[in-house]
Amino acid sequence: MSVGYQAGSVVLGGFTPMLATSAVLWSGGASWSLMALVAAGTGSALIPARAPY
After folding, report:
1. DSSP character string of 2-38
2. Where are the domains of the chain?
3. Which of 2-6, 25-29, 46-50 has the highest mean pLDDT?
C-alpha cells in the first residue's frame, strides 16, 4: 500500500504545478480556476474515505 501511495504522490504531485499553470492560463488569470482545482482534489480524496471496509 505504501508503494502505491508514494508512486501516486510522485506522479500527481509532479503534475500539480503544470495543471495549476494551465488552469490559470485557461481562465485568463482568474483565481477561481485554482480554487476549482483544489476542490476537485479534495473531492477525489474524500471518495475513498466513504468506502465501506
Report:
1. HHHHHHHHHHHHHHHHHHHHHHHHHTTS-THHHHHHH
2. 2-48
3. 25-29
